[in-house]
Amino acid sequence: MASEADEEKGGRGSTEPEQAAPKAVEPEAAGPEAVDPKIAAAIAAAEAASPADGVSVRIDSWIWAVRLAKTRSVGAAACKGGHVQVNGVRVKPAHTLRIGDEVRVRQEGWERIVVVKRLIRKRVGAPVAAQCYVDNSPPPPPRQPFAAPAGIRDRGTGRPTKRDRRDMERLRGLMEGGKPRPSGR
Questions:
Q1: How far apart are CA 77 and CA 50, in angstroms?
Q2: Apex 124 CA angle, 126 and 66, nearest 5
Q3: DSSP-derived 3-state class of residue 32
């Protein structure tokens, strides 16, 4: 039979180990570098996937592995097109990368500027990939709201009537000859 102290704890018997409570974080791991245990495990996996000492990593492979490019072939195409620079110099896809290099990748109207912290070859999750570089990129440009162009007609509706044409011109703000329509009308 359980004692009164066990019943106060929730009715558990004395057969359960007393170390069932979650352990506190060790003092040396509680500093500013403390990370989530899942991320720490993934980082350890990335360390295992990193090349051995003296082995290099290709730039196209690295930008794919840290998720700056969607596929390795897209990373290679970006290098061939001159969209990737290492330390201010345009590079080929087979360029070897070192820790501390500054990598600039131009993509979709803005430039990502990162400094290499860790060399990896295999693609890893986004939280782990963020641990492999220091991002010095400016914020991306604001997205432009999509506006449908005025005067586009549905396919198959035929030639516009005179009334339709005048409505389209009114939407565009033009009158005959490309001049602005007078505001008094």
A1: 24
A2: 65
A3: coil
Contact between residue 67 and residue 127 where contact means Cβ atoms under 8 Å apart? no
| Structure confidence by residue, pLDDT tens digits, 88-123 | 999 999 999 999 999 999 988 889 999 999 898 889
> Under a CB-based contact definition with an 8 Å cutoff, are residues 112 and 140 in contact?
no
Which of 144, 89, 141, 99 minimizes the C-alpha distance to 120? Answer: 99
For the stretch 116-157, pLDDT in tens is: 998 988 898 888 888 889 999 998 888 777 665 656 778 888
3-class secondary-structure state, position 177: coil
Sign of CA dihedral 126, 129, 130, 131: positive
What architecture does CATH give domain 35-135? Roll (3.10)
The torsion region of residue 151 among left (phi > 0), alpha (psi -120 to 50) and beta comes to left
DSSP state of 71: S
Question: Domain ranges in the chain?
Answer: 35-135
